[in-house]
């Protein structure tokens, strides 16, 4: 960790935040993450880092009162976030989805069909 006023590179701070969340073993508020990292960091710095990690799909969160609790996303969360980003970045969503579906194994097709039916029922 950087001390004595030294600035961290954004990637370094993101890695430290992910390590703190992993070590915590349960969802943490930004204040709890800040405490684990050392009080020399501003709350807003920790909060901004957590939001960026969430936007990248590397952490998940849930509302807890006025704050959020954050935890490291599992592999499925990360993969789903990347898929959403690919869809959002493309002006041809149909082509992205067609390529994805076309690359599925025959065993995955019934699972995808069931998941789509479940999603339709939920609205």
Describe the structure in your own words.
By secondary structure, this protein is mainly alpha-helical. It has 2 domains: 10-72, Arc Repressor Mutant, subunit A (Orthogonal Bundle), CATH 1.10.10.10; 75-122. 62% of the residues lie in helices and 10% in strands. It has 6 helices and 2 strands, in the order H-H-H-E-E-H-H-H. A hairpin with a 2-residue loop joins strand 1 and strand 2. The mean pLDDT is 88. Pfam families: Penicillinase_R. This is BlaI/MecI/CopY family transcriptional regulator. Belongs to the BlaI transcriptional regulatory family. InterPro entries: BlaI_family (IPR005650), WH-like_DNA-bd_sf (IPR036388), WH_DNA-bd_sf (IPR036390).
